[in-house]
Specification:
about 55% helix, two-stranded antiparallel sheet, mainly alpha, about 5% strand, two-stranded antiparallel ribbon
Length: about 450
């Protein structure tokens, strides 16, 4: 009798356990936002440069998107539309696969492979794995298996983009004889960042030179020359802010769009860094804001992140191609040497040549992609910089936000006007090309 009771109890426990693990599993847009936020958090910790950060955004989003496009007829695969990407594997069976979960698994796994502090992503991932397995183990296992298979497929494609080869290429050589050429800037006097980034395989553009901008104004320290006038404009704009303090709208704009991931701070004999998001991360943050306001479902959210991250990544490749071709000196260097040795920009000058403005190019491209997705007059409150002690700024459109991001470089004292105006056009032209080339959705 006791044996029968014991057997009955065991059967009941197994039955209850199985029932418990058959709960429906719903993966929401917020789950995807949290995964993206976790990657940004780790990228800030690991201090990735803006170009490298753009690569870290693009590949995991593409992996997630390709899984969604496999299941959702409203979205079309990027296979054959972006360079050298083939069709992802089909699942062995559709049984038990939650495609949203598989997409999130692929996003987390590829993100983990692209950052340094893997344990931070693993901890986040494992907490979700435990939750999902507890609710519905068969669905979790099938979805996880497919997500990881796709992540491996995308990783193999990613490994052929020439990134690893650029890690061993020579450092940038500073030309000290030509006064027009870029020189390292204070306080850290770092070497030129990512001088070979134009050699990374682009995603949608034909080549790094496809959107080659017009050359910058010819270098000249003659007072009537266009270049000298642009230099003096940077000097005078900064001087006009003196006395306004924190009440200056120009300073507020410069600080809001600073997006320098590594700002060196010197106090006495001590030097340390403050960490922030990159320009690409700021626009990824705006993508999250727009997706939430739009009440975008999971598929549309992934679509928005993917199209925007491709535009951002190609914008960096295009911009860096020009930066190291023109190799133009920064305003701070010339002003300190020829005009005022005590002059300091509002923002710390980043460690790479001046022309064109990276934030301007990236903002032009990202805003064009977002306008294509959400529309022309999409107003939003940008709280991306709140974690860094900066207030919310409101915009009536993505274009307005991009224009403000671009002019912020003048207010910050780190770019001449030509780099800003030509840069934002370069980005918009590139962004327009991408949204016209990529046929990603059958929906409005």
């Amino acid at each position: 009798m006791k044996e029968r009771i014991s057997l009955l109890v065991t059967v009941l426990l197994v039955f209850v356990s199985c029932q418990k693990k058959q709960e429906p599993l719903t993966i929401s847009p917020e789950d995807y936002h949290k995964s993206v936020d976790k990657v940004i958090e780790v990228m800030i910790h690991d201090i990735f440069s803006p170009p490298v950060a753009s690569r870290i955004f693009a590949y995991p989003n593409i992996a997630a998107y390709e899984i969604i496009a496999k299941k959702d007829d409203g979205y079309k695969s990027l296979a054959g539309q972006i360079h050298e990407l083939g069709e992802i594997p089909n699942p062995k069976t559709d049984e038990n696969i939650n495609y949203e979960m598989a997409a999130l698994v692929a996003h987390m796994d590829l993100s983990r492979k692209l950052i340094f502090s893997e344990d931070r992503v693993k901890t986040f991932r494992d907490s979700l794995y435990t939750l999902w397995a507890d609710k519905n183990e068969p669905v979790f296992n099938a979805s996880k298996e497919y997500g990881l298979e796709v992540a491996d497929f995308i990783a193999a494609w990613m490994d052929k983009d020439n990134y690893k080869q650029t890690r061993t290429m020579p450092k940038f050589t500073v030309n000290t004889e030509d006064p027009s050429r870029w020189q390292p800037t204070p306080p850290a006097y770092m070497s030129g960042l990512e001088p070979h980034w134009s050699e990374i395989r682009p995603f949608a553009i034909d080549s790094s030179e496809q959107f080659k901008p017009i050359p910058p104004p010819e270098f000249s320290m003659e007072e009537d020359s266009p270049f000298y006038k642009e230099l003096m404009e940077v000097y005078e704009v900064r001087k006009s802010m003196v006395g306004k303090g924190d009440k200056s709208e120009e300073i507020a704009i410069a600080q809001f769009w600073d997006c320098n991931p590594y700002v060196s701070v010197t106090r006495g004999h001590l030097m340390f860094a403050t960490k922030k998001i990159t320009p690409g991360a700021h626009w990824i943050g705006i993508t999250k804001i727009a997706s939430r306001k739009d009440n975008a479902d999971f598929a549309r959210t992934v679509y928005a992140y993917t199209k925007t991250s491709i535009a951002i990544a190609d914008a960096f490749i295009s911009c860096w191609d020009e930066k190291y071709r023109s190799n133009l000196i920064r305003p701070e260097t010339l002003i300190n040497e020829y005009i005022d040795d005590s002059w300091e920009p509002v923002l710390q000058t980043p460690p790479f040549p001046e022309y064109t403005s990276g934030h301007s190019v990236v903002s032009g491209a990202a805003s064009t992609a977002l306008t294509d997705i959400f529309g022309d007059n999409f107003s939003f409150d940008d709280d991306t910089e709140v974690p860094y002690g900066l207030p919310v700024r409101s915009f009536t459109s993505f274009k307005q936000a991009a224009d403000e991001a671009a002019i912020s470089r003048m207010y910050g004292g780190i770019h001449y006007r030509a780099a800003i105006e030509v840069g934002v056009k370069q980005g918009r032209d590139l962004g327009e090309y991408i949204v016209n080339k990529l046929d990603m959705t059958t929906r409005g």
